[in-house]
């Protein structure tokens, strides 16, 4: 959506760093690397051979903003499902393949947008790399070299003693070199570890040694709360240095949650246009209104409003007017009333009981002024807006 000026100075900041220069590959219709925006991806949790369930989950992921989806291919039945899934998916499908070279060829023939292979079990692929490179090149299918600490090449495990950053990077670059010997460079790389410190060090090392686009991931990051924190800090450290071309948040949670977190991380760094953002104060002893409830009600009321809008919900007059003035729309509460700000100006003061409905009304008015048609039925169905606590 094209942002429309609201008549006030922009409150957005620039991205935190210039992107690392990387070569660009195409994962189906989605460019990865170069000057392409950092994309968000996830992986289905269904049995791939269950085509209907897999396509249903891909549709849910697509609706949540997922741009690339990966499906596991551990069996012949899964491989046989790939042509239909690749054809019917609205977003590029990557086949995730371990151990069995024959499934790599099946995925390429099936029309998958890319194939992920794991150097940890690549020895089975070693004598097939030439054929894989030829088939992939002939079909314009890139390969992700996906190194994972949990399945590191035993030779490197023996050499380094454990999955160190150096071991992860050596594994990835060694595998790349096998493909390069056949003139194949349509590659992206991941070097995942469950420890964000090791993971960040590995990606930094890797970024300095090649120009391949990088797929960021903290593997086995854990349940939603822990995984979100690990992914946010690790991706944040790397993205703040311009490292990272596509991201996958791994959570022990429904994959749609991974997309919400991934998008939130990119929006936080202005690597993606922010949607609706609620700036709410954490509340304190000065609060003259129930800020938590107010913020939740405003969030619930505006969920589904897909416009770049910052709404400030503040508990008192200390920082309230300042934050509310800086936002597109805001309220500074006090004495049972709320001062409503639009475009930096106080437009009215309403009783506390009318704050939520007034903010929602004004948000819809702003959306209309931006030429955005709002279907009120949509307002409760999509993920909630980002909430920033000042
Ligand atoms: S705006 Fe700041 S000072 Fe006022 S209630 Fe919220 S946290 Fe406290």
Automatic annotation (TrEMBL):
Cofactor(s) the protein requires to work: [4Fe-4S] cluster
SUPFAM superfamilies the UniProt entry points to: Dihydropteroate synthetase-like (SSF51717), Nitrite and sulphite reductase 4Fe-4S domain-like (SSF56014)
UniProt pathway annotation: Isoprenoid biosynthesis; isopentenyl diphosphate biosynthesis via DXP pathway; isopentenyl diphosphate from 1-deoxy-D-xylulose 5-phosphate: step 5/6
EC number: 1.17.7.3
Cofactor annotation remark: Binds 1 [4Fe-4S] cluster.
GO molecular function, one term: 4-hydroxy-3-methylbut-2-enyl-diphosphate synthase activity (flavodoxin)
Residues covered by the IspG TIM-barrel domain: 22-262
InterPro entries: Dihydropteroate_synth-like_sf (IPR011005), IspG_bac (IPR016425), IspG_bac-typ (IPR004588), IspG_C (IPR058579), IspG_TIM (IPR058578), NO2/SO3_Rdtase_4Fe4S_sf (IPR045854)
NCBIfam families linked to this entry: ispG_gcpE (TIGR00612), PRK00366.1 (NF001540)
Keyword check for Metal-binding: yes
Organism expressing this protein natively: Sinosporangium album
Protein name: 4-hydroxy-3-methylbut-2-en-1-yl diphosphate synthase (flavodoxin)
Family statement: Belongs to the IspG family.
Matching Pfam families: GcpE, GcpE_C
Catalytic activity reported: (2E)-4-hydroxy-3-methylbut-2-enyl diphosphate + oxidized [flavodoxin] + H2O + 2 H(+) = 2-C-methyl-D-erythritol 2,4-cyclic diphosphate + reduced [flavodoxin]
């Amino acid at each position: 959506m094209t942002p429309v000026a609201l008549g006030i100075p922009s409150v957005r900041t620039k991205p935190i760093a210039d992107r690392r220069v990387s070569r660009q590959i195409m994962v189906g219709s989605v460019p990865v690397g170069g000057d392409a925006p950092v994309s968000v991806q996830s992986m289905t949790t269904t049995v791939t051979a269950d085509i209907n369930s897999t396509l249903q989950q891909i549709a849910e992921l697509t609706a949540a903003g997922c741009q690339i989806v990966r499906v596991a291919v551990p069996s012949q039945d899964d491989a046989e499902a790939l042509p239909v899934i690749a054809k019917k998916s609205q977003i590029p499908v990557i086949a995730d393949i371990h151990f069995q070279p024959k499934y790599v060829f099946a995925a390429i023939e099936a029309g998958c947008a890319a194939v992920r292979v794991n150097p940890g079990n690549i020895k089975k692929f070693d004598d097939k790399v030439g054929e894989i490179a030829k088939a992939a090149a002939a079909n314009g299918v890139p390969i992700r070299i996906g190194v994972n600490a949990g399945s590191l090449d035993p030779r490197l495990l023996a050499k380094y003693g454990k999955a160190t950053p150096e071991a992860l990077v050596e594994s990835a670059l060694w595998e790349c070199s096998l493909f390069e010997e056949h003139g194949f460079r349509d590659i992206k790389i991941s070097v995942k570890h469950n420890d964000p410190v090791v993971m960040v060090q590995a990606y930094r090392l890797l970024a300095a040694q090649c120009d391949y686009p990088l797929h960021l991931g903290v593997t086995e990051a854990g349940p939603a709360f822990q995984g979100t924190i690990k992914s946010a800090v690790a991706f944040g450290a790397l993205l703040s240095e311009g490292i990272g071309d596509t991201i996958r948040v791994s959570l022990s949670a429904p994959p749609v949650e991974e997309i919400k977190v991934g998008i939130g991380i990119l929006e936080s760094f202005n690597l993606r246009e922010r949607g609706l953002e609620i700036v709410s104060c954490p509340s304190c002893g000065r609060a003259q209104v129930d800020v938590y409830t107010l913020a939740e009600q405003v969030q619930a009321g505006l969920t589904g409003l897909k416009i770049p809008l910052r709404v400030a919900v503040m508990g008192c007059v200390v920082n309230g007017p300042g934050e509310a003035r800086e936002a597109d729309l805001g309220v500074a509460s006090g004495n049972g009333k709320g001062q409503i700000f639009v475009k930096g100006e106080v437009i009215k003061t309403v009783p506390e009981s009318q704050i939520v409905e007034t903010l929602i009304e004004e948000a819809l008015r702003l959306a209309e002024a931006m030429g955005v048609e709002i279907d009120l039925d949509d307002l409760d169905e999509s993920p909630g807006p980002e909430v920033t606590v000042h």
